[in-house]
């Protein structure tokens, strides 16, 4: 485990400008001190082996995040592929009666219906480049006009 240069707890990032490995709390103290040090780019350290990851950030306080380097991902992928193959082999049950065709048709219809519902929920409305007209009923003091002037 790589230690924080300031408090000896587990380091989570490396600041090249300060040439220091820091934990989340010490990073917030150091890089929250002023706007110049807040601009330092910090590289996240791998959660498993504490080497550099491709993830970097800057700002006064980074949100605690878990990152994994490419080496650890590649070494874990072989294990995960074996687990995936074993799961597929145990999940594959055979259909003796041949009812799969009806189930497949139902699932296709429901998938299409789901897709239509999603499209309806995610409609894009183009913005207008025209300026919003100013209503002459508004007073200069910022008070809203009475909405029931003509209702009496």
From TrEMBL:
Listed Acidic residues bias regions: 92-122
UniProt keyword terms in alphabetical order: Metal-binding, Zinc, Zinc-finger
Domain of life: Eukaryota
Domain B box-type span(s) in chain numbering: 1-45
Coiled coil: none
Molecular function terms, GO-annotated: zinc ion binding
PANTHER family for this protein: B-BOX TYPE ZINC FINGER FAMILY PROTEIN, ZINC FINGER PROTEIN CONSTANS-LIKE 10
Identification of the protein by name: Zinc finger protein CONSTANS-LIKE 2-like
Source organism per UniProt: Tripterygium wilfordii
């Amino acid at each position: 485990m790589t230690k924080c240069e300031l408090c000896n707890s587990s380091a989570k990032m490396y600041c090249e400008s300060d040439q220091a490995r820091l934990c989340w709390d010490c990073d917030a103290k150091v890089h929250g001190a002023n706007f110049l040090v807040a601009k330092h780019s910090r590289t996240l350290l791998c959660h498993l082996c504490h080497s550099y990851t491709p993830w970097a950030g800057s700002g006064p306080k980074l949100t605690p995040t878990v990152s994994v380097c490419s080496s650890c991902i590649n070494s874990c992928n072989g294990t995960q592929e074996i687990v995936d193959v074993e799961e597929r082999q145990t999940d594959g049950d055979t259909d003796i009666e041949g009812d799969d065709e009806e189930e497949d048709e139902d699932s296709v219809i429901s998938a299409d219906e789901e897709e239509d519902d999603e499209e309806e929920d995610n409609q894009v409305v183009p913005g207008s480049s025209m300026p919003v007209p100013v209503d002459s009923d508004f007073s200069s003091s910022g008070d809203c006009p009475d909405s029931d002037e003509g209702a009496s």
